[in-house]
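[Archive record]
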Amino acid sequence: MHTVLIKNAKVVNEGSIQNCDVLIQNEEIVEIADSISAKSSDTQIIDAEGNYLFPGIIDDQVHFREPGLTHKATIETESKAAIAGGITSFIEMPNTIPQATTIELLDDKFEIAKKTSWANYSFMFGGTNDNLDEILKVDPKKVAALKIFLGSSTGNMLVDDPKVLENIFSKTNLLIAVHCEDEATIKSNLATHIKTFGEDIPMEYHPKIRSEEACYLSSSSAIALAKKTGARLHVFHLSTAKETALFDNKLPLGKKKITAEVCIHHLWFSDEDYKEKGTFIKWNPAVKTTSDREGLWKALLDDRIDVIATDHAPHTLEEKKNVYTKAPSGGPLVQHALIAMLENYHHGKISLEKIVEKMCHNPAILFQIKNRGFIKKGFKADLVLVDLHAPWTVNKSNILYKCGWSPFEGFTFKSRVTHTLVNGKVVYNNTKFAKTSNAQQLEFNR
C-alpha cells in the first residue's frame, strides 16, 4: 500500500482554512485530522511547514494541440506544465487536426492522453453543422461536454446554421459549452480596419474588432436559445462587463442551467497592456477595457461567474510575431494560472477560499466530476501545496510550455507551487518531476 502523510498544512477547502494533517492511502484521502501519526515506517511524510494545501485545480478549458498541431504543444508537454502550476485535471477542446467531431477521433485523443498525460484528463466533443448523429452517440459518463463555436473557429467547427443549432440544443443531454462571438460583426469590423491600416493593424484595435457588441450579441442569443430549449449551457471566457448582466446568482451552482466562466487573462490584462505586450496578449475574445476587467471581477466575486479557467492555447514565437491579421490568437497559461490568482490574493482582490471555490470546487460541481475538486475523505488525492511567500521570476529557463514563452515573462510572483499530488502520488516536488506520471481519465456522475 502506498501511503503519504501531509503534516502541518493549512487546508483550504469548502470556505474555510484549517490547520490539519491529511493521510492518503493509494489514490484516496482516508483521514483528515488535527494530528495524524504515521502508521508504518514506509509512509512518505511531507511536512507542509504551515504552507497552504489546496485541492488540485481543475481547468475546464485548454487547447493542448494534439493531434495535428504538435509543433505548438503536446498533451505531454502542456500537462506537465499544468502539474507544475497546480492543475491536476484538465478538459481539452476539440479543435485539433483532425477535429474531435466523431467518436472514433475522440477515442484517438483519449488514447494519446492515456499514454502521455501528467494530469487527469477529459475531452470535449465538437459540434458542427452536420454531425448531430455523432453527438447523440456520445457517452456523458465519459465526455466532459459538447463544445460549440459560435464564432472564431477553425475548420468546419463554426456552427452558424440557426436550425442546426436549435436542433442540437433540443436533442442533446450533454452540457453545451460555447465560445460566443458574433462572426458577422467581427468580419465587418475587421474589413473596416483593414481599409484603414492594411494587414498590420495596431494591436490596440483588437478589442474594437472583436468588440463588446460581437460578444454580447452571441452570448445573449445562446442564452435565449438555452432558455427556449431547456439545454444546459456553459458560456466560456466572458470578456465584457455587459455580458455579466446575462447571468445571475439566485441559485446554487448545482441547480443552475446557465453558467459562466472567466479566464486568467481577462482578469489580469486590459487594453492598456497592448502597447507593451502586443500580439502576446492577443486572445479571442479580446482582452478589453479596465472597466470590463473590473466588471468581470465583480461578477466573479458575487457568483454570477462560476469558474476560473485558462483557455491555454499556445502558439510558437514565430507565429505570434506576425502582423495583426496573420498572428494567431491564444497564449500559454496553465503553469502560471494559480499563482496569478494568488497574486490577486496578495493584492486583496480575492480570498484563498474563493480561489479554491472557483478553480477546484465549482468545476467539479459544474461538470459533475466524480470524487475530485475537494479535500474530503474518500475523494481522489489530487492536491497542491503552495508557499505564499517564495518569490520567483518567470523567465525562459523556468517556462515549461513547448512554445517556450509566456505573457508573464519578467514578472515576479510572490507565491510558488511546491508539491503537486495526482491520485495520491507526488508527481511534482520543488521544480522536480517524478519519473512517471499517475494520471487517470476523469469520470462523471451522470
The longest strand covers residues 3-13. The chain has two domains: 3-53+382-393+411-433, 57-365. Residues 261 and 307 are 5 Å apart (CA to CA). The radius of gyration is 21 Å.
